[in-house]
Amino acid sequence: MTAVAHDDENGIVLTEEQKRRQRKRSVAIALVLAGLMLLFFVLTIVKFGAGNLGLPAQPGVTQQGR
Amino acid sequence: MSLVTQGANLARPGIAQPRIEPSRAEVGDFVALLKPRVMSLVVFTALVGLIVAPGHLHPVLGFVALLCIAVGAGAAGALNMWYDADIDAVMTRTASRPIPAGRVTRGEALGFGMTLAVGSVAVLGLATNWLAAGLLAFTIFFYVAIYTMWLKRSTPQNIVIGGAAGAFPPMIGWAAATGGIGAEAVILFLIIFFWTPPHFWALSLWRADDYARAGVPMLPVVCGRAETRRQILIYSLMLAPLGIAPWLAGYAGALYGAVAIVAGAVIVALALQVMRERELVAAKRLFAFSILYLFMLFAVLLADDRLSHLLGRTV
């Protein structure tokens, strides 16, 4: 287990190992956020496509007529 | 400004402040919190429920539904590890999990689990329907509050009732595709529900000392190994006909029926062996086959469904 260095001047000073782990966590969070952004984009496109919004069909109104 | 710096500014002279430590967690530790092996079975059974359901779901929405069910199951796993950290630290099987090993704090696991739980339910509701989202929310609640916090520490029937949490995924998949709950989905729920006791009690037969040390009232600890063997056989005898039920009810074809009959006979034979031989190797054999049994039933149900669709289209 890594010890945490601390001094009043600089606050918490991370070791190289802690910095490496923090960097990896940051990259993982960035990737997850990018993935979510793509997911929501595709989801929106698909949901606005025909028949995926779960709305009741309106007789006489075609997709082009809306 | 980082949280750590904010914490340092709040320090008042003369009052001891708890030392704020940076997280020690690796990305892999957060993945471990999701219990990936449990998640894989959840995803598979949910996929089968989603595909064999009569409704049509856009493939992208189907993928999102499965992703949400997987993340929801992972959230339940993380919240389980958050609450059970004390038990996990005592048991050999779980002592190396991220929290007891000191790599992830309980607070991190709680925050991670809650975020994923809320996010997965919300996205599932927006992508498919709110019945499926409600079922996913209930499953997470049932696993964490009913099983983990209450039943696990208080009754030897913990995994019988708690098993419902693991049985919901095919029903959630079904609800995502159809917006309702059909009789076939209920049968799939019952198969997993009655599969859970023989599966976990077979494991607990050779982990009884571990559970006893942690103070978990598993059946072998409270009622002894002989009663556990008897209960395994009873539940296996109920599971075998339930496995055949989709075929008997006309939801699956002859291929599924044949596999379910043979697999059901094998699981009953193995349960009888556990009862007669009293050797741990028999329990290990039953535990291993029970995983194959569930995987096989759902895989053949899926294949049978696709096959009948294919034949139906070509005729």
Task: Write a concise keyword list for the protein shown above.
heterodimer, A: 66 residues, 1 helix, 48% helix, rod-shaped, disordered C terminus, B: 315 residues, mainly alpha, Tetracycline Repressor, domain 2, Four Helix Bundle (Hemerythrin (Met), subunit A), 2 domains, disordered N terminus
Give an overview of the whole structure.
The complex is a heterodimer of chains A (66) and B (315). Chain A is built from one helix and two strands. Chain A is mainly alpha-helical and 66 residues long. In chain A, strand 1 (5-7) and strand 2 form a beta hairpin. The longest helix of chain A has 32 residues, at 16-47. The radius of gyration of chain A is 25 Å and the shape is rod-shaped. Chain B has two domains: 29-180, Orthogonal Bundle (Tetracycline Repressor, domain 2), CATH 1.10.357.140; 182-315, Four Helix Bundle (Hemerythrin (Met), subunit A) (Up-down Bundle), CATH 1.20.120. Chain B has 13 helices and no strands. In chain B, helix 7 runs antiparallel to helix 8 (158-167), helix 7 runs antiparallel to helix 9 and helix 11 runs antiparallel to helix 12. Chain A binds chain B through residues 1-2, 4, 6, 11-12, 14, 18, 21-22, 24-25, 28, 39, 42-43, 46-47, 49, 52, 54, and chain B through 4-5, 8, 19-27, 30, 58, 60-61, 64, 67, 102, 123, 126-127, 129, 179.
